[in-house]
């Protein structure tokens, strides 16, 4: 009696147990296969000294990478964010596009607002400043000291000429990080440039 | 004592809570909801203006989705509410939450495999069509396991696929609305959320998730239908529909057709065009079968020709009922029973005798001896 002729669809009888379990099995296999595939790839890629990486919307932002930097590929997306690692020092460069042209004060407040998400989760976060900043590439913006948990460093907001987009940089390292690594990070930030929208 | 013979209204179960399929839907949706709240609840709590705007847009989107799906996407009559809510729940929580986990794994791999530049262009197109279409399609398969009544034709699969897609799209809009705050550097959070929602609803909304999963769902509906075609044929059709849905998603996420506004408009329009073609094919098949069984029931004496002619379209049903004036309520009940009878006859391989309780109910409604539940009448 309990067959296709009385059931009205093909998932009847024992299939009503087997099919949903098979669906779960397929999803687990798919997820496991993807995890194995991702694990089989190296976590980071060593970037050749002197390489210029362009990133952000229309690749209008660029950074020149010095010696000893590793690109954290898993955390990086050329359209929005680069994560570069040098020993214990992590530099995160994010491109942001403001809903409307923003003033430097609004940009800094926005950065503080985003860091507030970590404060709400109980992480100790301190952002000081901002002070005016101009790097060696001639890009101007703001700079301030940053502490997230037990890591310290600097935050930068480097807007384009229109104030419509910006590169936000967070340099963080353990307190006992050597001067070499901090100098390498400073050199990296010094090379950041951002073009205005055409 | 005089004993009258009365016939009860057949009340089949659309959602059987005693099935594995139902509890898999619930469990995976709960897991998906937990995943989503872990990622987005802190942001939603921190940016209340964005959250309120997001919720308002979500509520409006839900109203539009329900109206579209229930009014237009299934021929003859809307799917039952129980199935409608289950499909939306799976799309919003189960599918969206699972996709969040799976995409997180696969997206991170592409930068390593393809390099930063190529991954920036192609990572989404290589990830979302596989993961998101898989989890959305899984929802339609699970709905087919919840009872043997929810998904019994390609038309059922189409509308439930669309509902799963709408659920997914609404939840994804919500998460993108919150992600926009970070992408705008925390400046004017509500404005940033509004801009993203504006684009995702007015520019890409017409050809986003609901179109893709409706196409895949039509294939699943055809696969599980009691069609006269062989299992192998139905499996190939289903695989073709799922592949087409993945192709639509790939096009949607790929850099093909160019960037900028033109590309952003063209991609959803292509998907919408594919949806319309699939809808026409599905609707034609459903209507042909409907006409066939309606003619059979007229021959069997269950329906009179004028009723059968009025049943297949909402407007003609309303027009038919209007002609009854004061006795319209009774006629409306009879009409619903006739609709239920023909719905029972849609699966081709279903024994016509299995619909006898509905024939009896129609006959009893004509004679005035129908009761709402089986009980002896003194």
What can you see in these coordinates?
The complex is a heterodimer of chains A (198) and B (378). Chain A is an alpha+beta fold. Chain A is built from 4 helices and 12 strands; from the N terminus they run H-H-E-E-E-E-E-E-H-E-E-E-E-E-H-E. In chain A, the strands form 2 sheets. In chain A, strands 1, 4, 5, 6, 7, 8, 9, 10 and 11 form a 9-stranded antiparallel beta sheet that branches. The mean pLDDT of chain A is 90. Chain B is an all-alpha fold. Chain B has 2 domains: 20-286, no CATH class; 291-371, no CATH class. In chain B, 76% of the residues lie in helices and 1% in strands. A two-stranded parallel sheet of chain B has the order 1-2. Chain B is elongated and about 75 Å long. The N and C termini of chain B lie close together (8 Å). At the A-B interface, helix 1, helix 2, strand 6 and helix 3 of A face helix 1, helix 3, helix 4, helix 5 and helix 6 of B. Chain B: It comes from Glycomyces algeriensis. Chain B: It holds the Pfam family PrsW-protease. Chain B: One of its GO terms (molecular function) is peptidase activity. Chain B: Keywords: Membrane, Transmembrane, Transmembrane helix.
Task: Please describe the topology of this protein.
The complex is a heterodimer of chains A (198) and B (378).
Chain A: H1 4-7, H2 15-39, E1 44-46, E2 51-55, E3 61-65, E4 70-72, E5 81-86, E6 89-97, H3 104-120, E7 125-127, E8 131-134, E9 140-148, E10 151-159, E11 165-174, H4 179-190, E12 193-194
Antiparallel strand pairs in A: 1-4, 2-3, 3-12, 4-5, 5-6, 6-11, 7-9, 8-9, 9-10, 10-11
Chain B: E1 7-8, H1 20-46, H2 48-71, H3 81-114, H4 116-146, H5 154-183, H6 189-203, H7 209-224, H8 231-253, H9 260-300, H10 305-311, H11 314-322, H12 328-345, H13 356-367, E2 370-371
Parallel strand pairs in B: 1-2
Helix pairs in contact in B: 1-3, 1-4, 2-5, 2-6, 3-4, 3-5, 4-5, 4-7, 4-8, 5-6, 5-7, 7-8, 7-9, 8-9, 10-11, 12-13
Pfam family, one (chain B): PrsW-protease
Protein name (chain B): RsiW-degrading membrane proteinase PrsW (M82 family)
Keywords (chain B): Membrane, Transmembrane, Transmembrane helix
